[in-house]
Design goal:
The chain is an all-alpha fold. Helix content is 50%, strand content 3%. Strands 1-2 form a two-stranded antiparallel ribbon. Residues 1-21, 187-196 and 201-206 have low confidence and may be disordered.
Length: 206
């Protein structure tokens, strides 16, 4: 194992609860579908910079505290080495359908065995099993990850749903981030790390 892999792996063991609000896309700086040495070097080049400094780039400030520091490396290390799977059109459509079904029926997961017969290609069946993992069930988060959709905390997802209703009532096209944060029930979920979810999702049509 290369030294940089060892160092990042060790970081991944530290303070795992701090990392739960961040997603794969936050750490995939070059948007190539995998988090690798290129992303690590890009983050390293920003280390020590703060908001207002020449060259500071907020993309690398993963916990949105205004500084690129050790906390951001801890977040990054959680995702180092991960790769978004390449999926066919047939598997993409199945995952979309599975996600819609789970949301409609209030399910958190579906048995992979129920989905496999819907795929003709052996490569697609193997890819689905890889996406779902060893437990044999496909979760909503696993489907979202494979489809390239943001995976959000329950608190943030709930606030976004409330925001949609509020915008419909007010006939508004958008809401300020601070208004969205006000929809989150607890102070813990208003932490800067949770704000990263809002910041990222607001780039997508709500």
């Amino acid at each position: 194992m290369k030294p940089v892999h060892i160092w990042v792996t060790i970081l991944g063991w530290l303070l795992p609860t701090v990392l739960s609000a961040q997603g794969f896309d936050d750490a995939d700086f070059d948007h190539n579908g995998q988090i690798d040495l290129a992303d690590f070097l890009a983050l390293s080049a920003q280390y020590g910079l703060s908001k207002g400094d020449t060259g500071y780039d907020a993309r690398y400030d993963l916990n949105l505290d205004g500084h690129v520091n050790f906390q951001d490396f801890l977040i990054f290390s959680r995702f180092y080495g991960q790769k978004r799977p390449d999926i066919s059109v047939a598997l993409h459509d199945l995952l979309v359908g599975a996600e819609v079904q789970m949301k409609a029926e209030g399910l958190s997961e579906l048995p992979v065995g129920m989905l496999l017969p819907k795929l003709d290609a052996e490569a697609d069946r193997t890819a689905l099993q890889d996406i779902a993992g060893s437990d044999g069930n496909l979760s909503i988060d696993e489907a979202k990850f494979a489809l390239g959709e943001p995976v959000l905390s329950d608190a943030v997802s709930g606030a976004l749903q409330a925001a949609k209703v509020q915008m419909q009532i007010q006939d508004a096209a958008s809401l300020p981030v601070n208004d969205l944060l006000g929809l989150v029930a607890t102070e813990e979920d208003r932490a800067p790390a949770r704000g990263a979810d809002f910041q990222r999702v607001l780039h997508v049509e709500i």
